[in-house]
Amino acid sequence: MPLVPMKQILDEAVKSDYGVGAYNVNNMEQIQGIMQAAKETSSPVILQASRGALKYTSMYYIKHMVMAAVENDPDIPISLHLDHGNNLETCIQAIKLGFTSVMIDGSLKEDARTPTTFEENVEKTREVVDYAHKLGVTVEGELGTLGGIEDGVGSGIVKLTDPDEAVKFIQLTGVDTLALAIGTSHGAYKFKASPTLAMDIINAVEEKVPGIPLVMHGSSSVPAHLIEIINKYGGKLEKTMGVPMESIKEAIKRGIRKINVDTDGRLAITGAIRKYLSENLDAFDPRTYFGAAREAVYQTVKGKMVDFGTAGHAGDYKPCCLEDMKKEYQGK
Ligand SMILES: [Zn+2]
Questions:
Q1: In the annotation, is 151 catalytic?
Q2: Ligand 1 center to residue 69 CA distance, Å?
Q3: How far is CA 34 from CA 47, 59, 186, 255, 302, in A?
């Protein structure tokens, strides 16, 4: 099975009313841990790479590691998505590399820090949609800005999405899916107390564009036990909170279909490696502690696949390819 366009994975999630995790990946063990969880729970999966990941892996490694996952687990629908593309060139680069989905984050200027105007965002997003859809590639846009900074992306300014603008944005750009700013935040330090998210924004958009798959960024739960492991074995992370799983489940009920998870994977890996090396002072075979990291990613992601409702849906549909999607866009 080739890589699947993300639009199909999300449209199927709309049909059966569940969420799909989009997990950031940078190395082999992360990909293997996520894939083991997907296989065991029979879940479709979105693997996403940020610009930081492309740089870290010199692009070709990320592509071929994901292709290895496709070959290793042919029964799991896998989409490869560019997270926070900052301009058309970056999106073209990812598409040429074989990504089946790209995000153009037109909410920020190319520096990934300065907020844009609505009109600038529409223009920037529209040109990516025009390019990508001709090739059958899915496009995610973003309207509004999140708090926090992750991988160098973020203005630090929170601007919740205006639902009426979101509807206009979807119509003007033709995006397949849209990231909303509903009060979540990038990075590990999201909230001091349990957050109140602006869930009504999801309903307001769904009401006017029924069935549009919506996206939640900054959706790691930052589980206390992961922070504790890191700190128990020599780390010094401040006490912090992420987005509680109950809030994510509520958002899925209202129309969120793609849930971005980066921080939790990072925390799981760091905790596992710290623990292993602290408990095994004579260890020097990287397979032992990278193996522990892989296991921690697997455990963390497996729980999310069950909680998001993704589990059990890998075999629901016949995966399509970019050629099929090209025809679908042409028919529009
Ligand atoms: Zn994001």
A1: no
A2: 24
A3: 9, 19, 21, 24, 8
